[in-house]
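Following up on my earlier thread - several people asked me to post the actual chain instead of describing it. Fair enough. Here it is, all 296 residues.
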Amino acid sequence: MKLSIPVVVLLFSSIGWGLTWLPLRYFDSVGLPGPLMIFIAFFSAVVFLLPLLVKGKSGLMNGLHLLLLIALFGGLANLSFQTALYYGDVVRVMILFYLLPIWSVLGGRIFLGERIDALRLLTLAAALAGGVLILGGTNVLSRPPDLIDLLAVLSGFSFAMNNLVFRFAQSIPLINKVIAMFIGVVVFIGLFLVFNSETLNLPSLQTTILAMGYGIVWLSLITIGTQWGVTRLEAGRASIIIVMELVAAVVSAVLILGQTLTLAEFTGAVLVVAAALLEGFRTEQDTVIIECRENA
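Reply from S.P.:
Thanks for posting it. Predicted structure:
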């Protein structure tokens, strides 16, 4: 695989997403509540990025409805992902997040009219089987998933829907879409904090500054890097690189936290990764077919 600039940017961004749990664990250890940490980080990122907003008819008003959808789905994706990682098991959350091929296939069928053939059915079967194994196999029927599990799945679903909207919004500048995603997080978590004032007690100034830096530097860079990288690489190639997010999370959690995978969980993880790769290569194939038809 040629190490072009988009490859390197996407690789480091994916690893950054996989290691996101590290600063979250730190903020938890110093007593910064999850909701308040998320608000400080994303609000700071919005303030930092707003001067970069691309103004003009084509950049704002012409795609306002798409930006609102990005704020909705991108906001939910980031909020549920950060919350699940803050409070949940790192490996379990990351694998459940990677059930997003299910939502990509179903969303493509419902909103884009993409056909579901044998390969896509295989993708769905692999992702579903992997998810069931991660949630406890046959025991999933006797013990329903907890809130953290649901948030992890919601983050993958919302991210898949956000990606679908991104495909419609290619004429909108990347920075505007990233800002819309972050504004969505700020609005959702801001509403939560309004009705949960007990989480509004600020910690030390140092911790607050670190939370601001987490949003401005870490979250901004990996979000922009991911979106910039995937728009400049074939879908299948990007999918292989993005899987490094899951690899980085699992390896770091095993080495640092001592977490382990049961045989069922390991098998489920392999199935989920296989589903992600299958869908990624399939998306690339569909894109080539569409381009050939347009050029015919």
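The two ends are 30 Å apart (CA to CA). That should answer part of your original question.
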